[in-house]
Amino acid sequence: MLTKPKSFSPYVPKPATLVGKSKLSDFVTLFTFAFDDGRILAHRPGQFIMLSIFGVGEAPFSVSSPPTKQSGNFELAVRRTGTLTEALHRLEVGAKVGVRGPYGSFFPIQKFVGQDTLFIAGGLGYIPLRSLLHYQLRHRDEFGRIVVLIGTRNPKERIFVDQLAEISARGDVEVLETVDQPDPAWTGNVGVITTLLPKVEMDPSQTYVAMVGPPIMYRFVISECRDMGIRGERIYVSLERKMKCGLGKCGHCQINGLSTCVDGPVFAYTDIETLEEAI
Fold first, then answer.
1. I want to staple 244 with a disulfide (CB 3.0 to 4.6 A). Which of 90, 121, 252, 272 is the partner?
2. Do residues 80 and 54 lie in contact, with contact meaning Cβ atoms separated by under 8 Å?
3. What burial class does residue 83 get, using C-beta atoms within 10 Å of its C-beta: 0-12 exposed, 13-18 middle, 19+ buried?
4. Phi and psi at residue 49, in whole multiples of 5°?
5. Of 115, 125, 232, which Cα lies nearest the Cα of 177?
6. CB 200 within 8 A of CB 147
7. Cβ(212)–Cβ(122) below 8 Å
8. Which residues lie below 8 Å from residue 165, measured CB to CB, with a gap of 6+?
9. By three-state DSSP, how is residue 56 classified?
10. Is-contact 178 190, C-beta < 8 A?
């Protein structure tokens, strides 16, 4: 007897459970989820998922944990900013959610093998970059020099503070941070993230750049990177536009002729430098 194949729709979320929750700052919390059927998310660094909270809605979130074949758990670091994120922060461990994805393009890890990587994170940009960084740390022998630059508005908004201290203490990763508005206890660099670039000397022929931050940051940081001699095809950015469906159907995240959710969110700079709306 023939059995009818199960129907599949990319619009139907898979059930998942909140299995962990830890506060990173006054507004940002790290959430750990696992699919109820035990599947692996199988994402790549830079990709995102669509998370739905039943009765509230659905929104895209970058995956912050590295890919893994051993555990079905994956992490999202989310800032409390609106109705859905407020509802997400109110969830207790054990709560059920829906997940679609992973979606979108990703950082080309294989190109980075044997090369140096300059991470540049502005604001909450460290959240998606953390996936790539921790992948490289798990496979440390495959990658060259790793330099991490992070810019934050003020010390209270810094996230993953303890983890970054541990990474910096390894001795094989350079971590530099800056804040725009210091408090009396802050002893580090003060200024926008471009003030960190003169503090690092990279071999431009050996360096790939992975950059995520607010749109206003890109133009200035990319210009600085080009002045350092880093070619445009070695600069990768993640563009966070108003993604809504994750499938390139709704048009909310279009940049000229590109859909950020399908063609991005990770782009080589050379792929978007001529698009007026991109940066």
1. 252
2. no
3. exposed
4. -125, 160
5. 125
6. yes
7. yes
8. none
9. coil
10. yes
**C-alpha to C-alpha distance for 268 and 270, rounded to whole angstroms:** 5
Q: Return the DSSP state at 5.
A: P
- Amino acid identity, residue 224? E
Listed residue (63, 50, 45) closest to 245, CA to CA:
50
Alpha carbons 241 and 182: distance in angstroms, whole number? 29
pLDDT tens per residue across span 167-223: 999 999 999 999 999 999 999 999 999 999 999 999 999 999 999 998 889 999 999
Among candidate residues 43, 25, 255, the one with its CA nearest the CA of residue 152: 25
Nearest to 245 by CA among 106, 59, 9: 59
Tokens in use for 29? 């919390």
CB 163 within 8 A of CB 134: no
215-245 pLDDT tens trace: 889 999 999 999 999 999 999 999 877 788 8
pTM above 0.85, yes or no: yes
Tokens of 85: 């994120």
